[in-house]
Predict the structure.
Amino acid sequence: MIFRCLSAIAAIAMATATPSALAADCSPSGCGDTSCAPCAGGPSSCQSCNTGCQVCGGQGFCCDGLLGEGIDVDSLTPEAQSKQLYEALQARLIFELPEDADVYLADQKMMTPGAKRTFVVPVNDPTKVYHYRFKVDVVRGGQKYFKNYTLETLRAGAILKIAIEAPPAVEGEPATIAVAVEPVAPGGGPSRDKSADDAGVPDAAE
């Protein structure tokens, strides 16, 4: 009799368990054990209420399929990214350009495709400002055209957006390549020595 009562109490406890108590049910399906939420239609509707695993355990709970705590959005701000780049003695170049354009850094052709391409370049001395040269080329009207460009103020921690425009050209007519640079973050670190900016601008190590 006592055994039957204990079994009944256990059954009731399982039926009324909270989502957090059943979160471990995600583990057998490979989802991990975080971010589980109740699935209104039971296990059969889990596929529609998450983007990771289809069914988490057998208790009618869904998991988002992502492990870990997640990403702190404050770490994604330009200031936070600039600080990380500064500490790593790097700068970031973000190119927005025609998909058929080629980019050359340090005389090396970059193989990254697309209309938006991001590159991280080394900066030897965090206290100095550098010149940094790159080249862009395109084929227009059956002819290849290129443009060399020099960034005048590249610092450790800098994030620069570089917009390239190279509109179509009729065969036999010259093409144009325009470059516009917008600093997302100037770099130089939080306590940049202003006197270093006036000490001359050497070429960056490419």
